[in-house]
Specification:
With 624 residues, this protein is an alpha/beta fold. It is built from 24 helices and twelve strands. The strands form three sheets. Strands 6-9-10-3-11-12 form a six-stranded mixed β-sheet, with helices on both faces. A four-stranded antiparallel β-sheet has the order 2-1-4-5, with helices on one face. The radius of gyration is 37 Å and the shape is elongated. The N terminus is likely disordered.
């Protein structure tokens, strides 16, 4: 084998290669099309009306060639047609027979025009109804998908790239729009049309109909092969599109880091690899389609030639009329046209099925934390927190414990701080209080009630958490404090901002609380974003306040503002703090020292210093 041929063969083989991750991602158990059709139930009346219109449209399409063919036989190629043509137009118009034929041609033309107008009217009505139904269904699916994603636990977001989720909610959902707004009705229309054509052709002339259908078995085999090959092709296409979106989502968000470390060239090569992978999948899709559709067109041309040859011989032999031959020629085009359309529809259909497999895979993902059917709703949360011999691992494996036999109780209104080295388990305790993860052993209680029996919504409404990494949404200052909760008034927003000293910089902004916030709040300093986070938490008036390294990235002046706010916030609330700077937590009622997932020391600041243990070493290390 020559080097050129070998290179071509290897390149073609690379188009078909699927790695293990892609193989796992494209696998779906079940019938996606059957499940997809369930979304049509609320709109079945609209769909039935569209099917009735399809029958009317198909009947009109079948009538068109008959009108022309009948006009040819009755008014153009009748017994006196040659004489009339020889005598000229004036004699034709003067003769009684000529007038009758001319009148017949006009009537046939008027009838044909009427059929065309009906086709236009019915097609317009059907198109509007289908497009409206398709958009309504897509709206429902997208809402269901986003609602489901919101219910998934943090473990899912820890392991699933954001770009993949975005692809499911945008590209994949939009890909199935064609199924409802176009493909299903066209499939029905094409099947009805082919059956109607076959019945009429057999009724008119069985022998000519047999000539017309001689290539149908070949078309059926080609369609079956195309269906088997194309489905896997479109699955791979959707998988690689999601991979590219995932890459873009992650690296565009981290563009600053890429530039800081000068990794532009390396990241460009990685993008080129992802892009090339998607290109190969798209090229494979194009190759499959480029073989099937021209093949169908070629078969339709061959069938047309067969009818012309055999039909011409029948006309010369006097077996059939020219009008009948015209009808068969039009019907043979119409018979293979639906098959050609099926080739185009298969593209959208297979793409939609592949996209629906991705969507249903996400919808079938069960939340790692199950909520009770009838959760306990406490009349009021006072803020008592109890950890009773809690063991926890993010991976769920017993040899990878993050927390080991942790027990403590925080009374309502108490302020407690957790300290320790990185990885000691401090932030994990905070995440477990909000039930973002499920523990493997032990019990966590809020107001002496197991949080597994409580409503997650009530828990998270009662727990206000301020984190080190503040996330601001696109909008304005007020919407970022309110978080779209319209029950929080503008006055409450201003009061919360004033309490945490955020009003000091908000009042100086050009538009105040209506000042625009860009994505992630990039135009605001770290201190300003943290103050907005405090205002957001206070606006919800939580019973339990959690501060996770809330002052780690704050300048000295802003930290003084926040310390003043924290003191006011902690009054009357159960407050839990995590901080590496021990100077910020000395005022707490109790300090718990974590080490390798276990509680090693507990007490006040002075009591822990007196123990001469881990806390004292951390304190002396910071002083030095």
């Amino acid at each position: 084998m020559s080097k050129e041929k070998r290179s071509l063969k290897e390149r073609f083989a690379s188009l078909l290669r699927v790695n293990d991750e892609e193989q796992q991602d494209i696998h779906y158990e079940g019938n996606p099309m059957k499940r997809l059709l369930k979304y049509m139930k609320p709109y079945r009346r609209t769909f039935v009306i569209c099917l009735v219109l399809v029958l009317a449209l198909t009947g009109l399409e079948l009538v068109k060639p008959i009108i022309i063919g009948d006009a040819i036989d009755r008014y153009i190629t009748g017994e006196k047609s040659e004489v009339l043509l020889a005598e000229g137009r004036e004699q034709w118009e003067a003769g009684e027979q000529a007038e009758e034929r001319y009148s017949g041609v006009l009537k046939a033309g008027a009838l044909y025009l009427g059929v065309l107008l009906l086709l236009f009217a019915f097609t317009r009505i059907q198109t509007l109804m289908l497009q409206k139904m398709g958009q309504d269904i897509i709206y429902d699916i997208r809402n269901e998908l986003f609602t489901h994603v919101e219910k998934l636990t943090m473990r899912f977001f820890d392991t699933t790239p954001v770009g993949k989720i975005v692809t499911r909610l945008t590209n994949d959902v939009e890909a199935i729009n064609e199924v409802f707004s176009n493909i299903l009705v066209k499939l029905f229309r094409n099947v009805v049309k082919m059956i109607g054509l076959a019945v009429i052709m057999i009724a008119m002339n069985p022998r000519m109909a047999l000539y017309s259908f001689v290539l149908v078995p070949v078309v059926a085999v080609m369609t079956l092969v195309f269906r088997l090959i194309s489905r896997r092709t479109y699955r791979l296409m959707r998988t690689r599109l999601a991979a590219l979106n995932t890459f873009l989502s992650e690296h565009l968000s981290g563009m600053k880091i890429i530039r800081v470390f000068g990794r532009e060239e390396r990241k460009y090569r990685e993008f080129e690899e992802k892009n090339d992978s998607l290109y190969k999948a798209s090229f494979r899709e194009m190759m499959v389609f480029a073989v099937f559709r021209p093949g169908i067109i070629l078969l339709s041309v061959i069938a047309l030639m067969i009818i012309m040859v055999t039909g011409g011989a029948e006309v010369l032999g006097g077996t059939i009329t020219i009008g009948t031959l015209y009808i068969f020629l039009q019907y043979i085009n119409s018979f293979y046209q639906p098959i050609q359309e099926l080739a185009e529809q298969f593209t959208s259909l297979q793409s939609a099925i592949s996209a629906s497999e991705k969507i249903f895979t996400l919808l079938d993902t069960k939340p790692a934390i199950a909520e009770e059917d009838h959760p306990v709703i406490l009349p009021e949360i006072r803020g008592k927190i109890t950890f009773d011999h809690v063991w926890f691992s993010y991976s769920g494996k017993e040899d990878d414990w993050v927390l080991k036999d942790v027990s403590f109780t925080i009374e309502p209104g108490q302020s407690v701080a957790f300290v320790g080295a990185t990885g000691a388990g401090k932030s994990s305790i905070l995440n477990l209080i909000g039930r973002y993860y499920e523990i493997q052993k032990g019990t966590i209680l809020i107001d002496d009630t197991d949080i597994r029996q409580m409503s997650r919504e009530q828990i998270r409404r009662a727990v206000g958490q301020v984190q080190q990494d503040v996330f601001l949404f696109t909008g304005d200052i007020a919407s970022n404090i309110r978080l779209r909760d319209e029950t929080i008034s503008d006055e409450a927003i201003r009061e919360a901002a004033k309490e945490v000293n955020a009003a000091r910089f908000i009042d100086r902004l050009p538009d105040g609380y209506a000042t625009r916030v860009t994505e992630r709040g990039a135009t605001y300093s770290a201190g300003q974003r943290q103050l907005l986070s405090f205002a957001r938490t206070l606006a919800y008036d939580p019973a339990i306040l959690i501060l996770d390294e809330a002052t780690a990235n704050i300048d000295t002046e802003t930290e003084q503002w926040i310390q003043e706010a924290v003191t006011r916030l902690m009054k009357g609330r159960t407050s839990i703090m995590v901080a590496h700077r021990l100077s910020t937590i000395q005022h707490c009622d109790r300090i718990i020292v974590m080490h390798h997932g276990r509680i090693r020391e507990t007490g006040t600041h002075q009591e822990l210093l007196a123990l001469d243990g881990i806390y004292k070493k951390l304190y002396q290390l910071q002083l030095s």
